[in-house]
Amino acid sequence: MKDIISIAMTTYNGAKCLREQLDSLYSQTLIPDEIVVVDDCSTDNTTKILEEYLQKHGLIYYINESNLGVNKNFEKAIGLCTGDYVALCDQDDVWLPHKIETSYKKIKTIENNEPALVSSRNISVDENLKIISTPKADDDSFDYSKTLLGHFSQGCTLMMNRKLIKNIIPIPEDKVMFFDMYIGLVAAMIGNKYIISEPLMLYRSHSNNVLANDVNMNKSILKRFYTKYNNKYPGLLPNERFLLMEYVKNKHYHQFINDRIPLFNRLLSLNKNINLLKAIKTIYPRDCELMS
């Protein structure tokens, strides 16, 4: 039986760039079976454009009665999707033609009948799609520790299977944490998460972006040790990261894969006033033993 692929998109006053994004979705090498859009009370022409694409392509859209905010709007959009696999989508980017096909083929190979998530990278562009920057070359990663050390994956790059969706709903409120950080950490601790190093979309960078990007993944782990996020703990993890880890631990600890628990707990123990050397020893105990 053929798998159903859904796109969960949220919109809010996105009329300026929405057509370019929708056209890129309907021009994929693997066309999604459904595109479900939830509009969060737009006051521009966003809903008129959505109606246009409903008539032209069969797009499905809903308009909220009141503003839900980013996290809960995505939660609603995901919940309305019927697909076996759901990809998340922002309103103002442009997907490269093979994004869905590449993500789908990869998630099929890594899910192993477990919760699964695939993410990818992007090319940063300005409002006119002029390239600002491209990601540095990197290898694909199936290593859960990469997520724990900072790479939660950007929401608009994610594709997840139904088993993961059952575990991440309900999504926390906006004021608690970013939805993509939450989804990425849950996937890394209870299932299979794969990071595709290839950029599969053009990401528009402008003042209206909502971006969970608390760690610059172009920096090495050593450089991040010396990046000061706050006064409480200099380097590696900001306070918001500890709050996220505590939340995920309280909700999903009983589902954590056993061999991933030690690193998780060592990182969580850094939520104290400790020095840099102790932090390194906490994360890399074996390496420090060899060096001593």
3D architecture notes:
The chain is of the alpha/beta class and 292 residues long. The protein has two domains: 5-215, Spore Coat Polysaccharide Biosynthesis Protein SpsA, Chain A (Alpha-Beta Complex); 219-292, no CATH class. Helices cover 38% and strands 18% of the residues. Strands 1, 2, 3, 4, 5, 6, 7, 8 and 9 form a nine-stranded mixed beta sheet that branches. Strand 1 (5-11), helix 1 and strand 2 (34-39) form a beta-alpha-beta unit. Helix 7 packs across helix 9 and helix 11 (276-283) packs across helix 12 (285-291). The termini are far apart.
Compose a concise summary of this entry.
The protein is of the alpha/beta class. It contains twelve helices and nine strands. The protein folds into two domains: 5-215, Spore Coat Polysaccharide Biosynthesis Protein SpsA, Chain A; 219-292, no CATH class.
Strand tally:
9
Rg, Cα atoms, Å? 19 Å
- How many domains make up the coordinates? 2
Distance between the termini: 58 Å
Secondary-structure element pattern, one letter each: EHEHEHEEHEEHEHHEHHHHH
Could you please say which CATH topology of the largest domain applies here? Spore Coat Polysaccharide Biosynthesis Protein SpsA, Chain A
Q: What share of the residues lie within helices? A: 25-40%
List keywords for this structure.
292 residues; Spore Coat Polysaccharide Biosynthesis Protein SpsA, Chain A; 12 helices; disordered C terminus
